[in-house]
Structures are given as structure tokens and as C-alpha cells.
């Protein structure tokens, strides 16, 4: 494919796409249009080290601002794309001007779901974490002795809980479902992480929904919970999932189904438009999924770059993910969707443990808690398409390394 590439969005996938094209010696004109005021940066630290105050924004940037002109990439910051004209092959920008493209890449990410204003979602002191400004604002509120309510026991909520405890706040997590991590992990993994948080003094309340936030003079002061309990709170952190930023694609008539539908080459229903990262829905093992992870944003974007540069190799996701909470590192290889069986294997060090997932007898994923060996071996087994013998996995004497080829 020849001609000018316009990339909408300036996050993980946008950077990976552009860096890969230049690494492939593709010299086409490229413009990145990003709504954010800073060059592309890593988001994971926003609910970890950055929020703890242990990393600054400079350390999060993939490259400094000078890298872009040096690589003949035009970086337009603080600029939003407001619409796509597919017939004219132009995008409209927030200032009313237009930009022509030959190839368009949508890397618009996702936006956190917010609590409705009717239940207090718009009160001051209520936060979601998606960009560095969110983390900056939240960080200034995290002072010792204050009370934080976390709504949602997913990874972001639990990471925020760990940071808040680390900064000396009193923390309650409420989770509407039967247990934390319901959507993304097994009961075994959830039980392990729950125990870790409880040991650090976090109050975790499962099967507990939010009825409404209570406020005074426009500022949150507490929350009414579904069990009738009224909890005081100085800040509220909402981690109830994200929605893909697919509006531009939908309005341009591209196929959209809770995300921009792409094929195994990251191509949308318009052959000159690609989509990648959190905004895209892609084929995976016979399903259409969105994979909200660094792994997917990078690998899918790099696969798209190769196609744009003339390649034909399809993208076959090899999911991996991680989450840091306190001194606990959770590493996940594979994607546990549809699992029907799990096996828990204690690791060799105190506090290390892994949870192995199976679907119809086939090994599909592993969650490794402070157990790098289990993660590395699990990842390798998945790459090799192998399912370890259950008896061998169950036997604590088995050296995991012997299970791979
Ligand atoms: C707090 C937090 C912690 C996370 N932790 C982990 C983790 O531990 N491990 C992991 O694997 N993943 C983690 N993730 C997920 C990971 O960061 C995302 O999957 C990844 O950033 C997706 O990359 P992306 O490029 O698709 O989207 P993003 O990185 O979100 O980038 C999208 C960009 O597009 C811009 N944009 C959107 N619409 C427009 C428009 N119309 N015009 C111009 N610009 C636009 C946005 O402003 C944004 O800059 C975390 C995410 C968050 C928020």
C-alpha cells in the first residue's frame, strides 16, 4: 500500500505502528493526530508506579518528542479527529481543517465507563484512570488517612487499591459480582489476590453494588451500598471497565460491534482503513474479541505495519498480561476465555503460586503469582501448542521446565 498514512490516536498502538513502519524502512509520509498534549506514553504505570509517585511522565514516554521529526513523523498533539470522509479520503480535525490520507489507522483506544451523574458520578472527588492527567489529579488527593472507595474489583481497581494503601489511605473495594476479577480470572486467582489485599488491610466487599454516591457542596462524601450500608469516602475511584472509542468508525459506516471490526490483517471493512489496539475487535480462536492489553496493542499494530508495508502475514494473537499489586507480580500467559477447569500449583518460593486453565482438556492460560518460572513455562507451552500432563503439573516435585520441548 502506498501513500500518506494518517494515524488517529497517539497511544501504545499508534507508536508501535509507526515505529515498526520506520524499522521496516517504510518512508511514506506519516502524521499522528493525538488528542493528548504529550507524545505517546505507557499507560500501565498510571495505576502503579506513576500513581505511587515513583515514576515521572518523562519515564513513561516511548520516545522523546524529537524522535518524531527525526523519523519524519509529523506529531500533531492536542488535536482531535472529529470525522472521517471515506469517499474523499480525508479526516476532519477539531479546528475544522482536513487532512488527506491514502491509508488510515484508527488507534483510538478505549474510554473508562463512568458512573451516571444521577447517582453522583459527576461529583468532585470521583475519578477514573485512563491518562496521565487523571493520575495526576488523583495522585494529589491520595494523602494519608483519607478514605478511598474503589468501585469495581477488576485489575485497575485492585491496582488503585494497592497504591492507595501504599500511600496510607483507608481503602474499601466494592464489587457487584459474586467475586472480584469475575470477568477476567478464575475463582482460584481471585481468592489469592483477595487474601493479599485483605492482609494489607483493604476492606473487600463482594456482591455489593453501589446505589449512589452521596455529596455535599458538589463534593463526594460517601456512598450508599446495595446492602443498605452507608460508607464515608473522601475519594472514589471507578474501575468498571472501558468502552472502545469506535464512534468515528461507526459514523463513517465501518462495521462496528462493541469495537471496530477488523480481520486478521487489522483491516476494517474499508480496505484502506486499519484499526488496532483497544478500539478493535479481532478474530481469535473462532470468536470476535477485544484484547485490552499492551501485548495486543503492540503486536496487532506491528502486524498492521507489516501489511501496510506490503506483507501478507496474518496476526495470530499470543496474549500475555501483567498486574502489579504491592510487591506481588501477577503474570498471565494465554487467554482464559471459556475455561472449564483449573489447577492450582504452589510455587517454589513462599507466596508463589500459579493457576493453570484448561478448556476441554486443552491448556489455554496460566496466571502466575510471584512465579516467573510458571509464567515462562506456561507461555512456552502455549507457543508450542502443548498441554502438560495433569499428573506432572500436580506433582510438586516436577521441574516445570521439563514440560516444554
Ligand atoms: C491505568 C491503566 C493500567 C493498565 N495496566 C495494564 C497492564 O498492567 N498490562 C497491560 O497489558 N495493559 C494495561 N493497560 C491497558 C493498556 O494500556 C492498553 O491496552 C493500551 O494502552 C492500548 O493501546 P491503544 O493504543 O489501543 O490505546 P491508548 O493507549 O488508550 O491510546 C489511544 C489514544 O487515542 C487518542 N484518541 C482517541 N480518540 C481520538 C481522536 N478522535 N482523535 C485523536 N486522538 C484520539 C487518545 O487520547 C489516546 O491518546 C492499562 C491501561 C490503563 C488505563
From TrEMBL:
<dbReference type="Pfam" id="PF07992">
    <property type="entry name" value="Pyr_redox_2"/>
</dbReference>
<keyword id="KW-0274">FAD</keyword>
<dbReference type="Pfam" id="PF14759">
    <property type="entry name" value="Reductase_C"/>
</dbReference>
<dbReference type="GO" id="GO:0016651">
    <property type="term" value="F:oxidoreductase activity, acting on NAD(P)H"/>
</dbReference>
<protein>
    <submittedName>
        <fullName>3-phenylpropionate/trans-cinnamate dioxygenase ferredoxin reductase subunit</fullName>
    </submittedName>
</protein>
<dbReference type="InterPro" id="IPR050446">
    <property type="entry name" value="FAD-oxidoreductase/Apoptosis"/>
</dbReference>
<dbReference type="InterPro" id="IPR028202">
    <property type="entry name" value="Reductase_C"/>
</dbReference>
<keyword id="KW-0285">Flavoprotein</keyword>
<dbReference type="GO" id="GO:0005737">
    <property type="term" value="C:cytoplasm"/>
</dbReference>
<keyword id="KW-0223">Dioxygenase</keyword>
<keyword id="KW-0560">Oxidoreductase</keyword>
<dbReference type="InterPro" id="IPR036188">
    <property type="entry name" value="FAD/NAD-bd_sf"/>
</dbReference>
<dbReference type="InterPro" id="IPR023753">
    <property type="entry name" value="FAD/NAD-binding_dom"/>
</dbReference>
<feature type="domain" description="FAD/NAD(P)-binding">
    <location>
        <begin position="4"/>
        <end position="301"/>
    </location>
</feature>
<dbReference type="InterPro" id="IPR016156">
    <property type="entry name" value="FAD/NAD-linked_Rdtase_dimer_sf"/>
</dbReference>
<dbReference type="GO" id="GO:0051213">
    <property type="term" value="F:dioxygenase activity"/>
</dbReference>
<feature type="domain" description="Reductase C-terminal">
    <location>
        <begin position="320"/>
        <end position="403"/>
    </location>
</feature>
Amino acid at each position: 500500500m502506498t501513500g500518506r498514512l494518517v494515524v488517529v490516536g497517539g497511544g501504545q498502538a499508534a507508536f508501535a505502528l509507526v515505529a515498526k513502519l520506520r524499522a521496516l524502512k517504510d518512508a511514506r509520509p506519516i502524521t499522528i493526530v493525538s488528542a493528548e498534549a504529550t507524545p505517546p506514553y505507557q499507560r500501565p504505570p498510571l495505576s502503579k508506579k506513576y500513581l505511587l509517585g515513583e515514576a515521572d511522565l518523562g519515564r513513561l514516554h516511548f520516545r522523546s518528542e524529537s524522535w518524531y521529526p527525526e523519523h519524519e513523523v509529523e506529531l500533531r498533539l492536542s488535536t482531535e479527529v472529529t470525522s472521517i470522509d471515506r469517499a474523499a479520503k480525508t479526516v476532519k480535525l477539531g479546528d475544522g481543517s482536513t487532512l488527506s490520507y491514502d491509508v488510515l489507522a484508527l488507534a483510538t483506544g478505549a474510554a473508562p465507563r463512568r458512573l451516571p451523574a444521577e447517582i453522583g458520578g459527576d461529583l468532585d472527588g470521583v475519578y477514573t484512570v485512563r491518562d496521565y492527567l487523571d493520575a495526576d489529579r488523583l495522585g494529589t488527593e491520595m494523602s494519608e488517612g483519607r478514605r478511598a472507595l474503589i468501585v469495581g474489583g477488576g485489575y485497575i481497581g485492585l491496582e488503585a487499591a494497592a497504591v492507595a494503601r501504599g500511600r496510607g489511605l483507608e481503602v474499601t473495594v466494592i464489587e457487584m459480582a459474586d467475586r472480584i476479577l469475575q470477568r477476567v480470572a478464575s475463582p482460584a486467582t481471585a481468592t489469592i489476590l483477595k487474601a493479599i489485599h485483605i492482609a494489607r488491610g483493604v476492606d473487600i466487599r463482594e456482591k455489593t453494588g453501589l446505589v449512589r454516591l452521596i455529596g455535599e457542596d458538589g463534593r463526594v462524601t460517601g456512598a450508599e451500598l446495595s446492602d443498605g450500608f452507608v460508607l464515608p469516602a473522601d475519594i472514589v475511584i471507578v474501575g468498571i471497565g472501558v468502552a472502545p472509542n469506535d464512534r468515528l468508525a461507526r459514523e463513517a459506516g465501518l462495521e462496528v460491534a462493541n469495537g471496530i471490526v477488523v480481520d486478521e490483517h487489522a483491516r476494517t471493512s474499508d480496505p484502506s482503513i486499519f484499526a488496532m489496539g483497544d478500539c478493535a475487535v479481532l478474530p481469535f480462536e473462532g470468536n470476535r474479541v477485544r484484547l485490552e492489553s499492551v501485548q495486543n496493542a503492540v503486536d496487532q499494530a506491528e502486524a498492521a505495519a507489516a501489511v501496510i508495508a506490503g506483507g501478507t502475514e496474518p496476526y495470530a494473537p499470543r496474549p500475555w498480561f501483567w498486574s502489579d499489586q504491592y510487591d506481588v507480580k501477577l503474570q498471565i500467559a494465554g487467554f482464559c476465555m471459556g475455561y472449564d477447569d483449573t489447577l492450582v500449583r504452589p510455587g517454589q518460593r513462599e507466596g508463589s503460586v500459579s493457576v493453570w486453565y484448561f478448556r476441554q482438556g486443552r491448556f489455554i492460560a496460566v496466571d502466575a503469582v510471584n512465579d516467573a518460572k510458571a509464567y515462562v513455562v506456561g507461555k512456552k507451552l502455549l507457543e508450542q501448542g502443548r498441554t502438560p500432563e495433569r499428573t506432572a503439573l500436580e506433582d510438586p516435585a516436577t521441574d516445570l521446565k521439563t514440560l516444554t520441548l
